[in-house]
Amino acid sequence: MASETALKTRHDGKVQHVYDMDGLGKVPDGDTSCEVMSPRHTSGKSSSYGGALFGEKVIVGVIHKARGSGSKRHTHPNEQFNYVLQGTLQCDIGDQTIFCPAGHCVHIPAGVEHSCVATPEEDVIFFVAKDTRHGIAGPPVDGVEDGPRFLEGFGPDKSDD
Q1: What is the DSSP string of 28-79?
Q2: Is 85 in a helix, a strand, or coil?
Q3: CATH T-level fold of 35-150
Q4: Between these two residues, 102 and 50, which has the higher pLDDT value?
Q5: In terms of CB atoms within 10 Å, which of 3, 10, 65, 90 comes out highest?
């Protein structure tokens, strides 16, 4: 899909190549050099919310996670880089738990089970980059897209009332 968009737009002399990442909710006027995804929840297994740009080979986006929330453990066959702009990501990658604060970048290797959540102190905003072969989000390890992962004390009330 992204390659069809790119091929179509490269023949017009006035193609948009610069994108306001905070303004992706508006449909771009005219031709674009890539596919634009307006802000939305990226999957049913995560609290991640944001817009993205899909090129022929690379996806980039600015993603928000509310404090104390994030993605269930999942995997995908493509590697991923998250550059944290605000807050701190707690990432479980394989059997390690790491913390990635603002100004740092976490690399998630291809095929490795992982989960990333915003720490309790504040919401997280990060820039994501990954290749396009497998989309923006991988399937949860347990196979069930039943909502995001929440740290203790966060998320919807799970009581039996």
Answers
A1: PSS-BSSEEEEEEE--TTB--EEEEEE-SSEEEEEEEE-TTEEBPSB--SS-
A2: strand
A3: Jelly Rolls (2.60.120)
A4: 102
A5: 65
Asked if residue 100 lies in contact with residue 127, where contact means CB atoms within 8 angstroms, the answer is no
- Identify the residue with better confidence: 135 or 128: 128
Residue 140 CB partners (closer than 8 Å, separation 6+): 45, 72, 73, 74
Q: Kindly report, residue by residue over 102-132, the tens digit of the pLDDT.
A: 999 999 999 999 999 999 999 999 999 988 7
For residues 110 and 47, which has the higher predicted lDDT (pLDDT)? Answer: 110
Domain ranges of the chain: 35-150
